[in-house]
From TrEMBL:
PANTHER family for this protein: SLR1189 PROTEIN
Domain of life: Eukaryota
Gene3D superfamilies documented for this protein: Homocysteine-binding-like domain
Keywords per UniProt: Metal-binding, Methyltransferase, Transferase, Zinc
Regions annotated as coiled coil: none
Binding site for Zn(2+): 215, 299-300
Name the record gives this protein: Hcy-binding domain-containing protein
Cofactor binding description: Binds 1 zinc ion per subunit.
A GO BP annotation: methylation
C-alpha cells in the first residue's frame, strides 16, 4: 500500500476559491479501446484488466485531474445482474476503489467514490425506492471502507433518484462530502418535472455539498442551463461535467444527436464525427471561470488530451503540458531557425493557403 499523502480536502479547496478538476468518462474510454461492451456498459475491465484501469487513473492525473474517481460507475447490483455477474459485485467495487486510493496516495490527489443512476427509478419496479436505497447503501459502505475523500453521485435524470442518493450519502457516509449531479436531457425540467434551480436547492437542503449537471449535454448546451439556474441558486458550489460532443439547440444532448451527413442517430457508438476538440474544451474552461463554477470535469468522450486542455485553460501546467503542441517547430507551420530549408520553401509556396491556419 502506498503511503498516503496529506492533501487539501475538496470543501477546503472550494471554500478557498479554487477550481477542482475531476476527470471522468471511463466507460467510453474503455469501450473505444475494446475492453467494455456498449449497451450494458458494465466496467468488467476493472476485474479483467485492472492494470489498464490503474493506468487510466494515472493518465488523467498526469493530464491535470485533481481527483482519482474510482471506476465504479454502473458497477452496481442492477447492472451486474444484467450481465450475470452479480456474484462479482463486491469484488469489482472494492478493486476499483483500492486502485483509486493507491493512485491518489501516490500522486497527492483526492480520491472519490462513485454511485450513479440505477435505471430502476420507475413505478413498474416493485419497491423501487427501497431497492435503489439498498443499491446505494452497499456501494457507499465500500466507499467509506476504502477511505475515499468524498463521493460523486451522478447522472440522475430524475430529481427523485438524486434525492435518494443524497440522503443515502448522508446516512451511510455521513462524514464525507458529496457532489450530486443531475442529467439534463431536453427541457428546463428533470424527467420527473422539477426545475433545475429548485432541484439544486432541495438537494443542497438534503445535504449535498456540491450540485450541478453531468453527462448528456456538451459544453454548448449544458452551460446555458447552469447559467440560468445559477441566477436563482447559490447555496452551494455548482458543478459542470459535460460530454465531449458538440450538442446543439436542435439536438441538445448526445442521445438525440444525428449524423450531419447520413441523418442517422449517432448514439452511442458513432459519435466520433461530433467530438469536441481541444479549443472547444479550452473555451469551456474559460467560460466556467466567468460563471464562477468551481467544480468542473469532462464526462463521456473524455480523454487525457482534453483534460489537459481544460487544466491549461485554468492557467495550470500539469505534467502532460510538457508535451503540449509547439507548432513553431512544425516543418511547415513553424518559424524555428533550425527548421530545414525545405520546410521554409514549402511554407513560402503554400503561404496563401496557410494564412488562415496561422491566424
Amino acid at each position: 500500500m502506498a503511503e498516503k499523502r496529506k492533501v487539501k480536502g475538496l470543501m477546503e479547496r472550494l471554500r478557498d476559491g479554487e477550481t477542482v478538476i475531476c476527470a471522468e468518462g471511463y466507460l467510453f474510454v474503455f469501450e473505444r479501446r475494446g475492453y467494455l461492451t456498449a449497451g450494458s456498459f458494465v466496467p468488467e475491465v476493472v476485474l479483467e484488466h485492472p492494470e489498464l484501469v490503474r493506468q487510466q487513473y494515472e493518465e488523467f492525473v498526469h493530464a491535470g485531474s485533481d481527483v482519482v474517481l474510482a471506476f465504479t460507475y454502473y458497477a452496481h447490483r442492477e447492472k451486474m445482474a444484467l450481465i450475470g455477474r452479480e456474484d462479482d459485485l463486491e469484488r469489482i467495487n472494492k478493486h476499483a476503489l483500492r486502485m483509486a486510493r493507491e493512485v491518489a496516495d501516490q500522486t497527492g490527489t483526492l480520491m472519490a467514490g462513485n454511485i450513479s443512476n440505477t435505471n430502476i427509478f420507475v413505478d413498474t419496479v416493485p419497491d423501487y425506492r427501497e431497492k435503489i436505497r439498498q443499491i446505494f447503501k452497499e456501494q457507499l459502505e465500500w466507499i467509506v471502507e476504502a477511505g475515499a475523500d468524498y463521493i460523486v453521485a451522478e447522472t440522475f435524470d430524475t430529481f427523485g433518484e438524486a434525492l435518494i442518493a443524497t440522503r443515502a450519502c448522508k446516512e451511510f457516509a455521513k462524514d464525507l462530502p458529496c457532489v450530486v449531479t443531475l442529467t439534463c436531457h431536453q427541457g428546463p425540467l428533470t424527467l420527473d418535472g422539477v426545475e433545475y434551480a429548485e432541484a439544486f436547492k432541495q438537494l443542497a437542503e438534503a445535504g449535498a455539498d456540491v450540485v450541478g449537471l453531468n453527462c448528456a449535454r456538451g459544453p454548448a448546451t449544458m452551460l446555458p442551463v447552469l447559467e440560468e439556474a445559477g441566477k436563482l441558486f447559490n447555496k452551494v458550489p455548482l458543478a459542470a461535467l459535460p460530454v465531449m460532443y458538440r450538442t446543439t439547440k436542435e439536438q441538445p444532448n448526445f442521445i438525440s444527436s444525428i449524423d450531419p451527413i447520413s441523418g442517422e442517430p449517432l448514439f452511442p457508438v458513432n459519435l466520433d464525427c461530433i467530438q469536441c476538440n481541444r479549443k472547444d474544451i479550452h473555451d469551456f474552461g474559460k467560460r466556467v471561470q466567468e460563471l464562477g463554477i468551481k467544480y468542473v470535469g469532462l464526462c463521456c468522450g473524455n480523454s487525457a488530451h482534453l483534460t489537459r486542455s481544460l487544466a491549461e485553460s485554468l492557467g495550470r501546467k500539469p505534467p502532460a503540458s510538457r508535451y503540449s503542441a509547439d507548432l513553431n517547430k512544425h516543418w511547415l507551420l513553424g518559424h524555428d531557425d533550425k527548421l530545414p530549408l525545405l520546410g521554409q520553401e514549402s511554407k513560402t509556396k503554400y503561404a496563401t493557403k496557410l494564412a488562415k491556419v496561422e491566424k
